[in-house]
Amino acid sequence: MKQVPIIDLHTAAAMVKDGDTLLQGGFGMTGNPVHLMHALAEIGTKNLTFIGNNTGEPGLGGGRLLRNGQLKKMIGSFFTSNPDAVKAAQSGAVEYELLPQGTLAEALRAGGAGIGGFYTPTSAGTLIAQGRETKIIDGEEQVFIKALRGNVAFIRAWRADTAGNLQYRMTENNFNKAMATAADLVIVEVEEIVPVGEIAPEHVHTPGCFVDYLVEAKITLEDLGSSASVSSSKKVDESRMNMAKRALAELKKGDVVNLGIGIPTLVADLITPQHGIILHTENGMLGVGPVPTDGGGAMDYPVNAGKIPVTALPGSSYFDSADSFAMIRGKHIDVAIMGGLEVDEAANLANWAVPGKPLLGVGGAMDLAKGAKKLIITMTHTNPDGSSKIVPDCVLPLTASNVVDMVITELAVFAYPNGKLTLIELMPNATLEEVKAKTSAAFEMGIK
């Protein structure tokens, strides 16, 4: 059995050279090799191409490299959570490329498997697909995505043995597993290094043949940033809760459901064991339970896609982000409930970008919009200026075309029977006259 060298942080960071492409595991600060990133920040290596879901948080993880001016280009899924990344991209200080979260994960998996690229329906017809090759496969437009590889991968695991076999903890798997396969040099930051044999073969998530070096470094609360603890209880107005209740009424026992951020997260607060609904989160968990009540945070619990600590229900499972999005694209998610910025008469959705606004990330929205068997959009009926969000044609950048099954606002519920936008229900305290006045789209009447 081979022995993988165990080295210190500075020695590991020094293996990254100016101009390298660096893969960094993690989802937010969960499963993030933060100590390796900070050691690289101290060395000052420059002109790096950074590939990761996001650039950490301001001054944390990749965010420290960004603040130091060490990044030449960022390739990732969701940079909005780091204001420094948004500013750097919009000012032109750092080049950037946005990929849907599932596309990013699959591109890394392809890179690690020696596959040159793949076609995916995700992002077809959107700004993300501009300039890319497309092809009609089985009647559906699909976008070609080139595989991704790096010179060096910094990843995080919970345990490793001296042969380099890795074990991930809860939702710390995320992008780490794919990245462990997709770089010329793989350096793993781990909480604990144990003798060979201490990790049972069936508990090895990444075999040691992928690993070149190990570094032992303990995670602290400070390393976890905003995921460190559960936020205080939130106040929710009645109209938003009514939307969540109406969305819940669409779910059936046994449904596998993905909830987006914003109003959809309120649905989770309403689900009881009696509903028999299985919640999925795209960062690698099936069977998501409520937020912990004991004050524990990401040191003790998994996190959901909103980077909020959650509990695991009996029968839950963990997996990596590539497998999570395979579930989505493979039509194994029954319902996705997402927020929206615009929905139009042709069931098109825009919910990821507003020109000129500091939004720099698509996350998993495009994958979910295309992949879920049923898509429910919960959103306020109008913008702050009173303009309608239910429009004849979307003018904001599209998330996906012809995908919306139902729209729930504080005023009304719309569906698309026979492909036509149809008002099927009024929400509490709403009138038909108000709905007509505040809806710019043409719609048919489905209520008596």
TrEMBL record:
Instruction: List keywords of the entry alphabetically.
Output: Transferase
Q: Give the highest taxon in the source lineage.
A: Bacteria
Q: Any idea of its EC number?
A: 2.8.3.5
Active-site positions on this chain: 282 (5-glutamyl coenzyme a thioester intermediate)
Group of enzyme by EC: transferase
GO BP terms: ketone body catabolic process
Sample GO molecular function, one term:
succinyl-CoA:3-oxo-acid CoA-transferase activity
Pfam families hit by this protein? CoA_trans (PF01144)
Annotated family:
Belongs to the 3-oxoacid CoA-transferase family. Belongs to the 3-oxoacid CoA-transferase subunit B family.
What PANTHER family does this protein's entry cite? Answer: KETOACID-COENZYME A TRANSFERASE, SUCCINYL-COA:3-KETOACID COENZYME A TRANSFERASE SUBUNIT B-RELATED
Name the record gives this protein: 3-oxoacid CoA-transferase, B subunit
